[in-house]
Design a protein that fits this description.
By secondary structure, the chain is α+β, with helices and mostly antiparallel strands. Helices cover 31% and strands 36% of the residues.
């Protein structure tokens, strides 16, 4: 019992907190009005939580264990666009970029929301923080990143 308690408390005491700004919320099943061209969305990993602040308009917290899939690049674009169009969301699927370069810094995140609903986000991350964020999300959620070869 002492070992179990120690395993639960140690990660929360370590204060593992990382944050990224300069992220754009492209689309998803979360209704929030943000300009898809503004880099004002931020993401913070704090212990087992992923906190996303949508340009100061809305903030959500995602438990790492509720993440079901993690995508990058073209795979993120395709999967999240598919989920958004099926959900009937009023947020349009972005039509930016038929060029590969526009899609190479995309991160798609699927998770089960607090209300039990299937939720998805498509984030465009600035180049200098993309790999670090993708790796941190993969390690935290223990999910491998799905990509198109």
């Amino acid at each position: 019992m002492v070992v179990t308690l120690a395993l639960i408390l140690v990660p929360s005491c370590l204060g593992t907190s990382k944050s990224w700004n300069k992220i754009r919320y492209q689309t998803g099943t979360i209704e929030v009005k943000v300009n898809p061209f503004d880099w004002n969305t931020s993401l913070k990993i704090d212990g087992p939580l992923i906190e996303i602040n949508f340009a100061g308009r809305k903030k959500i917290s995602i438990e790492s264990r509720s993440v079901t899939s993690l995508y990058s690049g073209e795979a993120a674009y395709r999967r999240i666009s598919e989920l958004v169009s099926r959900s009937g969301s009023s947020r349009p699927v972005p039509l930016f970029g038929m060029l590969q370069g526009d899609k190479e810094h995309l991160i798609g995140l699927e998770f089960t929301g607090a209300d039990g609903a299937h939720t998805a986000l498509l984030l465009f991350v600035q180049k200098d923080g993309y790999h670090d964020l993708l790796q941190a999300l993969s390690e935290l959620t223990r999910k491998s990143v799905k990509e198109i070869p």
